[in-house]
Amino acid sequence: METSQKLKILVVGSGGREHALIQKCHQSPLVGAIIAAPGNGGIAAEASCHPIEVDDLAGLVALAQTEAVDLVIVGPEVPLSLGLVDALKAVGILAYGPGKDGAELEASKVFCKDFFARHKIPTAEYASFTEVPPALAYLQEHPPPIVIKASGLAAGKGVIMAETQAQAEDAVRDMLEGGAFGSSGAEIVIEEMLFGEEASIHAIVSDEDFVCLPPSQDHKRAGEGDTGLNTGGMGAYAPTGKIDAELQARIEANIIRPTLAGLKADGIDFRGTLYAGLMLTENGPKVLEYNVRFGDPETQVLLPMLADDLVPLLIASAKGEPLPKKVRFHDGAAIVVVLAAKGYPGDYPKGDHIDFPKSIPDGTAIVHAGTACDQKGQITTNGGRVLGISAQASSLQNAAQKAYELCDQIIFNGKYLRRDIGHRELNR
Ligand code: AMP
Ligand code: GLY
How confident is the model at residue 216 (pLDDT cuts 50, 70, 90)? Predict the structure, then answer.
């Protein structure tokens, strides 16, 4: 095929997820060129980067038109919730991801919980509030431990796990009266605290058709042994043995299929990624939340496990066409370890030079999450999560060993990583 006949793809976003998507798309024989907006220091080596922010819908649509791209892959939730896919569709540009209506599943926890109730999808008991007095009355009847959540997008921070009545009441007042999380906290969900192990299922969806990627687990806390502050994710691995074939079939039958049927019944033509955050409780799996995009850093392990070309899957989903019947995955396992800047998820320095090894072993990848490229062409730190080091191998043990060996060869000031990614699976 001539290069001119090959596809030109625009990837929207600037993190590790987007870099992993670009690395995977570059493996596709269908793809000619990839551009990114805004991208990052590492992405720039593989895709020309355009300085347009992810919430600048008009700018992104104009870029897609000027560059005559064949497909836009939208990484983060913010542009999806603003309606980027609808805006692109309106000018005839194919885009992967749900429209604004489908993105409500992630953008509004109240919408999502009401959706679960309407379609009988297993989840934590809940109620939603916009006023303090009824919320406090509900807390009297539902003593701690209890979970208080800002309804809107809060970059993973709007969830308070209250152990005492005072913590619960403070969280309610902070969100509804104190402006914590801004307009995202103007409406809240109070829900039952669930106990168990967490795991995620990612499905690529086209209407009621779907393909599940291997079940994964991420590591949200900053410290080893799952201690310390919540982060965007310090590492992930797939598959997790916590979800065997039997449980996977139950999750598909009781959660994924009813969700897709519910979306259709509600008049939402869902296309894109459905990412279920699950709690595996004694009473079966329950959905904690839905996201409508690929997880970060989960993408960095899910895509290396995919043996087939990703691009035809994304195109079929974007067009609302049936997905390929048989999708192949590699045996073995994949892991990603995040190299963060010391201080993350609090304040951290930027602009530190990063030293990389001259070459990396087969089956490993260096994914850039928060990097910049300075005037001399050198890569520097530019975010809290700086890099993701991923490895795929015949077993999780081997993958972890490969990934950590590579982690140790990458050097920058204040490099911080967790040494126990995959610990639950490795100790099973
Ligand atoms: P969410 O953004 O709703 O996924 O919440 C973020 C994190 O908070 C989850 O990954 C869980 O670790 C925790 N969480 C949220 N809701 C609950 C719940 N009802 N019970 C226990 N943990 C929860
Ligand atoms: N790793 C969690 C997320 O992407 O939301």
Answer: very high
Question: What does the DSSP assignment read for 12-81?
Answer: EE-SHHHHHHHHHHHT-TTEEEEEEEE--TTGGGTSEE----TT-HHHHHHHHHHTT-SEEEE-SHHHHH
Helix (H) or strand (E) holding 386: strand 385-393
**364: Cβ contacts below 8 Å, ≥ 6 apart:** 389, 390, 391, 392, 402, 403, 406
Ligand number nearest CA of 154 is 1
Residue 380 CA: distances (Å) to CA of 47, 384, 413: 18, 12, 10
Helices 165-176 and 132-141: crossing angle, nearest 10°?
A: 160
From 149, 159, 227, mutation site for ligand 1 pocket: most ligand atoms within 8 A of C-beta: 159
Q: Are 233 and 348 in contact (CB under 8 A)?
A: no
Instruction: Tell which one of 296, 300, 302, 390 to mutate to probe ligand 2, the residue whose CB is within 8 A of the most ligand atoms.
Output: 296
Burial category of 400 from C-beta neighbours within 10 Å (exposed 0-12, middle 13-18, buried 19 and up) = buried
Query: How many whole angstroms separate alpha carbon 42 and alpha carbon 295?
Result: 19
C-alpha separations of 55 from 133, 240, 347, 371 in Å: 35, 34, 24, 20
Q: What is the pLDDT of residue 181?
A: 87
**DSSP classification of residue 271:** E
User: Which domains can be identified in the chain, with CATH numbers?
Assistant: 8-99 (3.40.50.20), 125-192 (3.30.1490.20), 197-319 (3.30.470.20), 333-426 (3.90.600.10)
Pick from 118, 123, 124, 121: nearest CA to 265:
118
**210 has which bridge partners?**
205
Ligand 1 pocket, residue 224 CB under 6 Å: no
Q: 185 falls in which pLDDT band (50, 70, 90)? A: confident
